[in-house]
Write a structure and sequence with these properties.
Shape: elongated
Radius of gyration: 47 Å
Largest sheet: 5 strands, antiparallel
Structural class: alpha+beta
């Protein structure tokens, strides 16, 4: 900045120093802020522009990754075959048996279509035994140790004189932490109170025995051993029995009324009698899975359209317009899904491309295809040459752990971090420049003030000399 200083020696009214645009009382803050802004603005605009572009691209790629991941997930049920593993189970008489089907799992076979004749001749029952009658629940029974065994497990219940009533013995059995599977209750009849013990599990192997030892001998009233010919204090109410049944004439036995004798089927035996169980394919899950896949693809197709759109009127463009990666993804997906796989195609199932690039499902045609040849539909997506196999590698290359979209996301995040560092550096440099300019212009303002004071003094002296010469 050039400062022009003029000294007027003949006029007391103009005897001060003046600077072009500055002087004593200079507006330092405004001048400094304007100069710093002029330096910072182009650099700030560059950072803002790069940051905005990176964030826009990051958002767009994030949306694409999410859409492709959803497509990958929707494809999974179709390629693994779980969508086609559904079955419907019907029973001729639901009062005799009911049944549910399970899909195949690792090491286990799934349900298979078929019809089965089932005859139930005996239900599995749990053992129940009752003591003789006591006056009431508070009647003292005796002291000593009760040993109860069931299902290969044993517990000992110590009974002393403070807890030897019928009710106390019931409670000690039920609350024992090592109870082998026997519950106790008190049933009161016209003859008095009875302690009733019951196995928690059905079947012959889950019956129980009770023996007593020590004490006053009164606990012998609760003894039971099926092998004993006398001395049992408990009497049998229900014997422990296995379920007995036939499936298509083949004999079966189970300690439970829940039977898994047929692959993939769980049959619940409810009462004795004969009925049929029919297993048929349920294609509703396959229909749902195909529609889910189509919805996932259409979400991507719509997203692609939005991210690559250009509005001539407003001049606005999509976040990834002209993006080679996104265009390649769209082209690859369209090519695979519009082509044949294992001798069939999506269009043959009623799934066809529309003019806007999305897919549309003709559910009537799809249902018909599933009904007439479900295996053909299954093979379209599964197997080494199905759509699943064709899409697996491309999808992994896009959204896999080392996929291109993951890499681009990482690079954009690094760029945004770098721009944040540049912003910090720019702010620091501008702060330093502000301080330097402030110091310089404050010094200038001080200097001008001193010069003006000196100018005023000299003017006064010149005027005084001039007046003296006139006398």
């Amino acid at each position: 900045m050039t400062v022009a200083i003029t000294v007027n020696s003949t006029s007391s009214n103009t005897g001060t120093l003046s600077a072009a645009g500055v002087g004593s009382g200079l507006d330092v803050n405004t001048l400094v802020s304007q100069l710093v802004a002029a330096k910072k603005t182009p650099l700030q605009n560059q950072i803002d522009s790069q940051k905005s572009t990176a964030q826009t691209q990051l958002s767009g790629i994030g949306q694409v990754s999410a859409a492709l991941t959803a497509l990958q997930s929707a494809l999974s049920a179709l390629t693994t075959g779980t969508a086609f593993a559904g079955h419907t189970v019907s029973t001729g008489d639901k009062t005799i048996v009911t049944a549910t089907a399970a899909a195949a799992a690792t090491g286990k076979a799934g349900a298979v279509n078929g019809s089965y004749n089932i005859k139930v001749t005996q239900l599995a029952t749990a053992m129940k035994a009752s003591s003789g009658a006591f006056t009431d629940a508070n009647t003292k029974v005796g002291t000593g140790t009760l040993t109860i065994s069931a299902g290969g497990k044993t517990m000992n219940v110590d009974i002393d004189s403070s807890v030897n009533s019928l009710a106390s013995i019931r409670d000690k059995i039920n609350k024992a932490s090592d109870n082998p599977g026997v519950t106790a209750t008190i049933v009161t009849g016209t003859d008095g109170a009875h302690l009733v013990l019951r196995s928690t599990k059905t079947g012959e192997d889950n019956g129980f025995t009770v023996s007593s030892s020590g004490g006053d001998g009164g606990l012998a009233a609760l003894n039971y051993d099926p092998a004993a010919t006398d001395g049992n204090g408990l009497s049998i109410v229900d014997k422990p029995l296995n379920a007995q049944y036939t499936i298509d004439g083949m004999d079966g036995s189970s300690d439970s009324n829940s039977v898994t004798a047929i692959d993939g089927l769980t049959i619940s035996l409810l009462t004795t009698g004969s009925t049929t169980v029919n297993v048929t394919s349920d294609m509703s899950s396959a229909t749902s899975a195909v529609n889910t896949f189509v919805t996932a693809y259409n979400s991507f197709a719509t997203l692609y359209k939005n991210l690559t759109a250009y509005d001539k009127t407003s001049g606005s463009a999509g976040a990834l317009i002209g993006d080679a990666t996104l265009n390649s993804i769209k082209s690859t997906l369209t090519g695979i899904l519009s082509g044949p796989a294992n001798g069939t195609s999506l269009s043959q199932l009623g799934v066809a491309f529309q003019l806007d690039g999305t897919l549309k499902v003709d559910n009537d045609k799809l249902t018909a295809a599933l009904g007439s040849d479900g295996d053909k539909v299954k093979s379209l997506f599964g197997g080494d040459k199905g759509l699943g196999a064709a899409l697996k590698a491309p999808l992994n290359s896009w959204v896999g752990p080392t996929g291109i979209l993951v890499t681009r996301t990482s690079n954009l995040n690094k760029q945004i971090t770098s721009l944040a560092d540049q912003q910090t550096d720019l702010d620091n440099r501008m702060d330093a420049l502000t301080k330097r300019y402030t110091q310089q212009f404050t010094a200038l303002d001080t200097m001008l003030t001193k010069l003006n004071n000196t100018s005023s003094y000299l003017t006064q002296q010149f005027d005084a000399m001039s007046n003296a010469n006139k006398k």
